[in-house]
Amino acid sequence: MEAVDLVVIGGGPAGMAAALEAEKNGVERILILERAKTLGGILEQCIHTGFGLHYFGEELSGPEYADRFIVLVEQNPHIEVKLGAMALEVIPGENRHRVFAVNQAEGLLELDCKAVILAMGCRERPRGALNIPGTRPAGILSAGTAQKYVNLEGYLPGREVVILGSGDIGLITARRMTMEGARVKLVCELMPYSSGLTRNIVQCLEDFNIPLRLSCTVVGIHGRERLEAVTVANVDENFRPIPGTEETIPCDLLLFSVGLIPENELSRAAGIAMDHVTAGAVVDELRQTGIPGIFACGNVLHVHDMVDFVTLESQLAGAGAAAYIRGTHDPAPEYLPTRGGNGVRYVVPQRVNRRQPQPLKLYFRVGEVYKNASVRLRCGETTLLQKKRPRLAPGEMEDLLLKPEQLAALPEGAELTIEVVEREGKDQIF
Amino acid sequence: MSGRADTFWQQRRISTTTRELTCVACPMGCGLRVELDENNRVLSVAGNACKRGDAYARAECTKPLRSFTSTMRVEGGEAPLVSVKSAEPVPKAKLFDCVKAGNACAAKAPVAIGDVLLANAAGTGVDLIATNRVAKKREAIAV
Ligand SMILES: Cc1cc2nc3c(=O)[nH]c(=O)nc-3n(C[C@H](O)[C@H](O)[C@H](O)COP(=O)(O)OP(=O)(O)OC[C@H]3O[C@@H](n4cnc5c(N)ncnc54)[C@H](O)[C@@H]3O)c2cc1C
Fold first, then answer.
1. Residue B4, pLDDT above cutoff 70
2. Domains, chain B
């Protein structure tokens, strides 16, 4: 058994930022477990640019963003990295926790530690979860898997492509496949709008005359060994296919980009309380889960669209874990729950310590698109904050900043609610 | 730039075309209507909520540029490919030529971030630059 202060599971942007911040706050024995052959996580295959504008003030590609942290981790004498090492189990204890992992060189590893940071990221929703009728031929992949084949391994998994899902990952994959010589015949989207950035709709689809069909889904799959065609159809407001709108499109590749799910098997098995909306753990403002000493950050906590926010969140978790390890944390937190009200799907963190001393950002996502609305944070009927938002969309994470004195002034047992306030008349002033 | 009255008279006299664009300067995504004369000069821009929309419409109709990222093969490296980006935006019409030019090359390991892997891609004057590092392949150690 090996003893360390902190085990970080996952060496993506979340795990790296958390480890570096913990070290900066005085933790001396940190171990990162990463199951892949390199650090960097999903960023290694995201070769497009669009990362880092917020955090570094410049637009970087995924590998460049990751490398800024990889260099720091590699140089850091207090952080050890085990690559090709897969964490299998986290067993929480009273004062110390245990982590089991395997790697090729050492076989089974048993680690004893004071704190654990979960940073396992997310994976794409598999096709199996979607129940599309038809055969099960080769040529059906998730967009991220196709991205990996093209960007990391150098081969094109198909020539005539239909993509289901118009989020940014679907859009970016459409452009990349096109630039490598494939023909993307259609991107279809179940919702009446695309959750992708306007910039991506213009530069990934319109630039290449790739049609986008909204309120549309795949209803049939054809082909025995290899995919030969798919049938798509429009859907009604209840997402049921409308008879008579079917169109069969010959293709040899169908890509799915229908959402991401946090990879939380380990967390569930450890008995950590989960939020069923985010599919991640319930955490406090330091990203500590319901089990003291176990923290979670990045896509394993809730799906982020911007890696910059993953970095910021993970720094909170790293600092929180350091305080826990060094015993400088608040021994008697007074937690107030947060929740999403009208139009707000979820709020992270799900609970906040009333006694915490820092300005506090509450992150949330809305359920649909709003124009010229505002967002309000209230406690009971008292409005604590209200801010105008020209545009709110499910694809973009929002935040509100709460001052520590505002928080401290709230009564014990109070609940914080964030909600969307739709604007009625144009002249109404907030 | 011509004033409103000018534009009005120009529209009367010459044949104009209209282009519909979606502004990408910010996530608002304003729908833009751009009027062009027969020499592809911008006569008017409508639908933009701010100045950036006007600038975007003019650039997009006269000289559209795009940055791009792609990959290049690597010889003797730990990974078979390295990701690359254009050092600056290239004319939109040259995008495919630039990607093809990159695919026709091979970089030699080791590769560092920022290495110029192809100078002057497809005659655009723009270089292709590595955005990841690739170490030299280690020789297999006999046990
Ligand atoms: C396809 C795609 C495109 C994206 N495009 C953009 C973009 O354009 N701009 C932007 O800002 N953001 C983008 N993002 C979002 C951003 O990249 C992610 O939010 C960010 O990478 C999440 O970081 P993470 O460390 O939480 O997860 P990941 O990067 O997924 O890292 C998690 C790591 O944990 C490891 N791991 C998992 N389980 C175990 C285990 N049991 N044991 C050991 N290791 C384990 C994995 O191997 C992985 O390396 C994109 C995301 C995806 C998926």
1. no
2. 14-63 (no CATH), 69-130 (3.10.530.10)
